[in-house]
Structure formats: C-alpha cells, structure tokens
Amino acid sequence: MKNLSRLLFTMLLLTSMGNVMAQDENNPWAINFGINAVDVYPVGEDAPQGGYFEEFFNVEDHWSILPSLSTISVSKYVGDNFSVQAGGSINRINKWGQTEDNFTNPSLRVNDLAYYAVDGNVRYHFANIIGSSKLDPAVGIGGGYTWIEEGAYNTFSTEAGSNNSVGAGTLNASLGLTYWFTDNIGFYVESKYKHSFEDYLTKHFQHSAGLSVRFGGTDTDGDGIYDKNDACPDVPGLEAFNGCPDTDGDGIEDAKDSCPNEAGLAEFNGCPDTDGDGVADNNDDCPTVKGLKTLKGCPDADGDGVADAKDKCPSEAGPAANGGCPWPDTDGDGVLDKDDNCPKEVGTVANNGCPEAPAVPDQVVLDKLNSYAKTILFDTGKSSFKKETYSVLQSITAILKEYPEANFTIEGHTDSVGSKTTNQSLSDSRANAVMAYLIENGIDSARLNAYGFGEDYPIDSNKTKAGRVNNRRVEVKLKK
C-alpha cells in the first residue's frame, strides 16, 4: 500500500502540472490512463528468462497483467511533431518465464511481486507525416526509475521475498499507436522496453493500453474553432472564414463585408444592388431607381451629365454650370449670353457677340474728326496745346479707336504771317504734337503719319484775321 500511495501521489502531481502549464497549441495536453502488462521473459537472458523478443506475444505464459487502472501519464505537444511525456504505473508480477525442462507448465510463477515505476520520455509522432487525423503512430526514448519487490529470481538482500523493493534507473524505448475517435478522445496501445542499469533489476518490457484524452485548446466563442486558429475568437464564426462570422450569409465574412447585415454580392463587397444598375446600394444616391455609375446610380433623362434630382431642366440638356439648363442667347446671334458682351444686341462671334465696327469711317465720321481737329488750339508760335484743347484731343482719340483697321494722316497748316521756313517748321511740329498725343493715348503708331504743309494750302484768305484763323489748322484724313 505504501508503494501504491506513492504512485498515486506521483500521478496526481503530473496531472496538476498538466493543468497549470501554458496552453499555446490546440489541445497540447493529453492524459493516458489504462492497464499495463509487465513481461520479463524476452529480454536476452538465460533461463528462466529467454532471448530477445522470444515468445514476445505469449500473453498467457509471460505477461503479468493488473486488470485495473494501473498506468497513467501526462504528455504535452511541444511542436515539430514532438511531445514530452511523464507517467507512472503499478503492477503485480506473477510470471517470470520458464525453465528449460518445464514443458507441461511453461509459465514459471512467482509470488505477486510489487512493481511500480515512474518514467519520462520524448516521443516523435507520425500523424502529420502520414497525413492522418485518426491514426497517430509514435516512437519514444527516455528514462525512468523502476522498483520491483525482491523474489526468488531478483534477490538483492539476503532475505529474498522480504517485501524489499529494489529500484534502479532505466533507459526506455517505446513504440505506440493512438487511434483518435474524436478530436479529444482516443484509444492507445504502447510497448516499452526498459533497460536497467543495475544487474539486480531485470530488463523487461512493459505494454499498456487504454484511453487518451487530449485537452488544453481554448474556444472562447464556442464555434468549434480553437482560438489559436480563430481570427475572430470572441465572436462565433465559420470555419470557412477562420472563425469569423458572416451575419447576412452572403458568403462574405463581416470584416470584409461593407454591408454585413444585408446580403449582397462579392463584386460589391457584400452590398446589394437593388435597382440593378451596377452601383452598390451603399454608394447609390438613388438606390431604388436605375441610374448611371458616373452619377452614383442616379438617372439622367436628358443625358447632359447632370442627375435628374439636381437638374433644373431634367428634360432639356444643359451644362452643370447652369444647373443642367441650356444657356440663353437673348439676341439670337449665336453667342450665348454668358459669353456675349452685347447680350441684347445682335453681333458676331468674332466680336464676342457685339456688332462689328466698320473697317473705315464714313464721310460723316471724317467730317466730325475734322470739326474737332480745327478746334485744336496751340500756344502762339508754339506746338504746345492750350488747356481747353485736351478734351478735343480725347474725342479724336475715341473716334480713331472705333476703327482699329483704319490708318490716318495728320496734317498741319499755318497762315502766311512770318517766314515760309518758320511756318513750315511750325506746321511740322504741330502735326507731330497731335500724333504724339494720340500714340500716348493708345493709338498704334503704325496707323499714323504726320506732315506739315506750312502756308502752302490755305483754305481762306490770309488778308483778313478770320481768314488767317481758318488757315491755322490741323486736319485728320483717312489714309487710302
């Protein structure tokens, strides 16, 4: 009973270790419990024991079996197909082989020698290699410590059979197979060879069979997918989506579904297209009316690129800048009011909707020019203007600007008072003074020429004061 208590304590300790260790793989822990058989015969010894593997499967003659729960172990998967295992077992040995001449009773009996052991080993599993989720073959190597009660063939003390337990370390090699009925429950068988380092403890085989229970994997959301492999461990989901949900059942997981509560299409990231216009409802400003992609799913009856809901003239094409309505052309000259500088007066496109000015002035305009020109007043004997003349010059400038294609000649004339040479020079300077003013005020110089004619072309008599006033003049003429 003392030895049995020790074994039970060891098993409880190992079980406790399994429960407190970190759980970082799916079901990394397993508990094996079952029955075991000890065979001291096929170990390569002289009689009453036999050679290696001799009568290895002779259960009736050589196996000592304790027909009750007699072995338990705890193992942990550590990765790369390896696991570590520790366990304990008890038994009663009542078979020790056979003598050479014992043919009638080939089983040599001993007096139920107490057996107990604590072992640890490292196992390599082949389930992943053979691609099986049910069959799990494994090989192991390790060591342990085994005690066997002294008897007639394993005497250590002087008093054989005195309930003394002889213990020694062992080097172990194992071969096992587990068949998993479910992810967590399996049936295992294992054969283990234990090689003692001391002569007083016999080498032996230990066979075991029983149930294996895997545990340790966590499934927080209860969807059958362990947290380690569950991309959404706190929300029940589907295996197809690594544990993430598909609330609307459209085959698109919620995390990638733009409309997770409404079944939709993959091409629209899980959103529906109610009106069938190729625009998902979540991006469709008019989800119940078939429309255009370019207008976010809204219709455009007049095809002007402005959605009907925003088109002030939905039945008449017009630009967006004018609210979908066409621009007016009040004067009907083909130039829209927005571009027409003269929207109420028929004009030409070339002149921005305004009437074209004549290329050259008519005689009425020329007469008007010269009526202005004759009122240009100069300081006596000079080419400088009198103050009241500037308004006249401005009027002349304005008329010339109305005819940008016409060229003009500015002629200066004097009366006959003074020398001819002086009068010629004065007429030149006065004609050029007028031309200079016009150029300074925006008239292109290429359009103008200035000439002085002195006293040669009078238009009145130089014998009277009034005649001489008329002869002192400037004339503006159209250049042919």
Description:
This protein is an alpha+beta fold and 480 residues long. It folds into 3 domains: 2-215, Porin, CATH 2.40.160; 326-356, no CATH class; 363-478, 60s Ribosomal Protein L30, Chain: A, CATH 3.30.1330.60. 16% of the residues lie in helices and 26% in strands. The protein has an 8-stranded antiparallel β-barrel. α4 packs antiparallel against α5. The chain is rod-shaped, with a radius of gyration of 60 Å.
List the helices and strands and how they pair.
Layout: H1 2-20, E1 29-39, H2 59-62, E2 64-65, E3 71-79, E4 82-95, E5 109-125, H3 127-130, E6 135-149, E7 165-180, E8 185-196, E9 204-215, H4 363-373, H5 390-401, E10 408-413, H6 420-440, E11 448-452, H7 465-471, E12 473-478
Parallel strand pairs: 10-11
Antiparallel strand pairs: 1-2, 1-3, 1-9, 3-4, 4-5, 5-6, 6-7, 7-8, 8-9, 10-12
Helix pairs in contact: 4-5
What would a concise description of this structure say?
It contains seven helices and twelve strands. The protein is α+β, with helices and mostly antiparallel strands and 480 residues long.
